[in-house]
Amino acid sequence: MADDSEVESLLNQKNWRDERRKLRDILLGSGLEERVKWGKLCYAWEGNNVAIIYGMKTSCAVGFFKGSLLDDEDGALVQPGRHSQAMRRLHFESLEEIEDSEDTLRSFINRAIQAEKDGLEVAFTEKDNLDYPDELQDALDDDPELAEAFEELTPGRQRGWVLHFTGAKRSETRARRIDKAQSKIIAGKGWNER
Q: For the chain, does the N or the C end have fewer beta carbons within 10 angstroms?
């Protein structure tokens, strides 16, 4: 259960105040439990995360943790990033848009709850299909300590590093990123960890 002061603080944020409250009412009305996770309002079914409320610059959204599994014949759900395998979001730009889309939103919430009841799981295939850039493979081949440390990283940390390295268009930039990352990798850290 969420701490009331944390919930109120999130609901009273300047941007999307009315929209957050409306989304919250709809989510709670669906029988979900409210929590605060990752600094956001999060909603669960029998302990399993189902949905989360986002407030962004140009829209607010309800994200569904297993959104990729939900039937979406109209293509209303948005993939947050090209590497997002599970999360899908419904974006709104006004309170009126939420009110006009309330039936659609409730339908997706019900589908997400049913996915939890059915025990559906997202198959995270990308973590098993990491395509190492040549610069990383060369660095691992040349440095056994780095290779061992990289192999000992969790799959998520390995994937994070590979995405970070391959995000660079130029070979020189990829090589520079790998060079800068070596001490963190040897320390067992992911690319976004201090």
A: C
> The tokens of 133 are what?
């850039």
DSSP H or E segment with residue 45: strand 40-45
Closest CA to 60 of 22, 19, 31: 19
Question: How many Cβ atoms sit within 10 Å of the Cβ of residue 176?
Answer: 13
Judge whether 22 and 98 are in contact, CB under 8 Å.
yes
Is pTM beyond 0.90? Reply is no
H or E stretch including 116? helix 102-117
> Which domains does the chain show, CATH number per domain?
4-117 (3.90.1150.200), 126-186 (no CATH)
Give φ, ψ of 187 to 5 degrees.
-80, -5
Whether the per-residue pLDDT at 82 is higher than 90: the answer is no
- CA geometry: angle 180, 183, 188, nearest 5 deg: 125
Q: Tokens in use for 166?
A: 């391959």
Residue 147: predicted pLDDT: 86
pLDDT in tens, 114-138: 999 998 888 766 555 677 888 988 8
